[in-house]
Amino acid sequence: MGNKVHFIWLMAACPADTGPGGRQDSGLLESERRRINWGGWLMVLLACSFVVVFWPTMASLVHAWGQGEDNSHGFIIVPVSAYLMWRKREEIARHRLQPSVWGGMLIVMSLVLYIVSRYGGILTLAPFAMVLLLQGLVIYLFGFGLFKVLMFPLLFLFLMIPVPSQVYSAMTIPLQLMVTKASVFFVEFLGVTVLREGNVIHVTDRTFQVVDACSGLRSLVALLALTLVLGYTALRTYIGRTVLVAAGLPVAIFVNVFRVVLMILAFHFFRFDLTDDSVHTLFGLGIFGIALLAVTFIQRMVSHWETFPDSD
Fold it and tell me: pLDDT per residue over 33-73, tens digit each?
């Protein structure tokens, strides 16, 4: 498509041939222009229809992202996905279009899923259907070849969907207990006497509770997005990318254990309360910064490993 548009621009800049052959070329050129114009208007119509149909879903997603820190990472997923697509612009321009009817089947399935989610009250499925339909449109209009080029940015959009509350609760409780037990182990190793009851840690004159925010799940979702992007853009092998993504879970748990241990030690030795609202937010940002440094360090190590001849 990019080559055709470039050809049309060059032809428009050159004097037209007045002979019979020139009139024939002019007619072909005009036909090509009309076809491209119709294709452009069709894309605009599809984009507008997509926004109109899924506007309630988009509004609910933005509302969920702004409600709390658990889903706030959703704001950056779409811009990052768009940037990753933009990085592929030259490959997209060179790609030969081969529309596939399989994309139409995926579109129909997505619309059915969306209708069921809206009228059945299963609102969690609505954004899933929206992303699935977008992928179906790419396959139907441009083919599996272009879908393969854009596969990661399109699949990355699933991370903007908030984790269902049932799944979130089921994952939070085990992580809370794991962080609590590990924190107590390190605190007692440092000579501080504590008493643990579930996810509650009792220290002299103070009680600490490992709440949902300290379970590591919030950090895990954000680190998952980060490791996926780093692996996709900075690593070459699937093994290296898998190692980096898998490292997100232990890093999330480690930094939250470190967070709880620091809070207990700061109060025990210095009577400084890091859970106070005035410092708690800055403290949390600092801990997440440590997580970012840890993930970046692991990425650099994996990237260095990939430079070895036998790493492929």
Answer: 655 566 667 778 888 888 898 999 999 999 988 887 778 88
Alpha-helical regions (H) of 88-157: 89-94, 101-119, 125-142, 144-149, 151-156
**Burial of 92 from C-beta contacts in 10 A (0-12 / 13-18 / 19+):** middle
DSSP codes of every residue in 253-304: HHHHHHHHHHHHHHHHHH---TTSHHHHHHHHHHHHHHHHHHHHHHHHHHHH
Nearest to 135 by CA among 122, 150, 120, 124: 150
Q: Phi/psi class of residue 50: alpha, beta or left (left: φ > 0; alpha: ψ in -120 to 50)?
A: alpha
Cα-to-chain-centroid distance, residue 13: 44
Please give the pLDDT value at position 78. Answer: 93
| Strand partners of residue 208 | 201
Write down the domain spans for the chain.
Answer: 2-160, 165-311
What is the residue type of 116?
V
